Amino acid sequence: MKKSTKPWGGRFKESTHSIVEEFTASIHFDKRLYRYDIEGSIAHCEMLAKKRIISAEEKKVILSGLKGILGDMERGDFEYSPDLEDIHMVVEKALIERIGDIGGKLHTGRSRNDQVSLDVRLYLRDETKGILKLLNGLKTTIVKVAKREADVIMPGYTHLQKAQPVCLSHYLLAFWEMIARDEKRLEECYGRINVMPLGSAALAGTSIPIDREYVAKRLKFPEITKNSLDAVSDRDFVAEFIFDAGLLMMHMSRLCEDLILWSSDEFNFVEISDSFTTGSSIMPQKKNPDVAELIRGKTGRIYGNLITILTVMKGLPMAYDRDLQEDKEPLFDTVDTVKISLSVLAEMIKRLKFNREKMMSEAVKGFSTATDIAEYLVMKGVPFREAHKTVGALVLYCIEEGKDLASLEIEEIRRFYKDADDDIYHCMNVRNSVDSRNIPGGTARAMVVKRIKEIETEKL
Predict the structure, then answer these.
(1) Which of 159, 207, 275, 281 is catalytic?
(2) Structure pTM?
(3) Which of 4, 193, 365, 458 is deepest in the core (most CB within 10 A)?
(4) Domains in the chain and their CATH numbers?
(5) Average pLDDT over the chain, rounded to whole?
(6) According to DSSP H, which parts of 263-383 are helical?
(7) Of the listed 55, 64, 81, 280, which one is catalytic?
(8) Is 15 a catalytic residue?
């Protein structure tokens, strides 16, 4: 076998076996980091020149070569060689081929270990900002629809059984609150992503007199890592991002689950736009909520990605290990999945048509104002547990007689509570029931409108 020609091959007598080349290569997926790899290299080059580790002329030549490679990659005119393992080696080899041995000076004072951490942090920093914008767009859409549907009453459910009537807007704003928490988590995660690791080198730092603070400032990092061992082996920020994405996907999945149920004939609460549904290859009448189903399904992929990164990390000895190459595919997949899911969900929500009459008619059913009657009795001085038992017996009577609460005569009600007056019928009205929940966080229309105004004011 011929001697290794790898940049790291000086101590190797044999070249890498072809199957090992294929097995260890990551260029087929980490090439998406090319822009960040070159951005980091430009900042590193400028720092080397500032510290007079390379000359001003060498800096000029290196920067010209890097920018030329970047231009070719942006235009799609660059051929990625799979035998060069990763994006770092691809860029370095291309640079040396273009400008000669001077290109070999660029790697002074750094390692692929801190270089890849930098690339991933730069990439994820940008992607997190983009996802935060999409989150804000989804929140805005939810508020607009909630404002439009402020007068609509629907049945609220627990255990998927009718429980109490609520405002549709209150329901929608529940998801706004979930998304707002997702947004806050990602903002906090962004702060832990936004730390500069370059200069940690392989694991111990470097004896070359580099200026890490200069590179951090050049790349707009507010701080640098404090421990070189930790810096090259840390993927907490990746795991945290995927966890946050998993919660976000779970919230979107829950909304989609309701929309899937509500769009069925059995519920008939909502119609999803034709442009966000598909048909059947055999049944001409079908209109399937495939977009909502796919968001629900893709949530599991993100959970899988989280388990992947946690499993990769759980047994690693300090410091860098090649296992960390396996962080990128689950990360990239998570970013791509979250972005498209957020985009498509926001557009689908804009076009929802709620069947307001059906929602109202169903809100009346299922003895949904039974709790209101119990609370009426409480306000008359009846202990709650006694009131609960009394209304339970009243509901059983209605079931046996085939009646609903509002159709009962006052004398029938007095069989169960002898001091009942005609004012008891007020609390049996679903709109009155909703508006009686007039406390902060309650479903009363006044509270919902107030919360919408608070949200709109917070955004200003």
Answers:
(1) 159
(2) 0.94
(3) 193
(4) 9-108 (1.10.275.10), 123-206+226-361 (1.20.200.10), 365-459 (1.10.40.30)
(5) 95
(6) 290-314, 328-350, 356-364, 370-379
(7) 280
(8) no
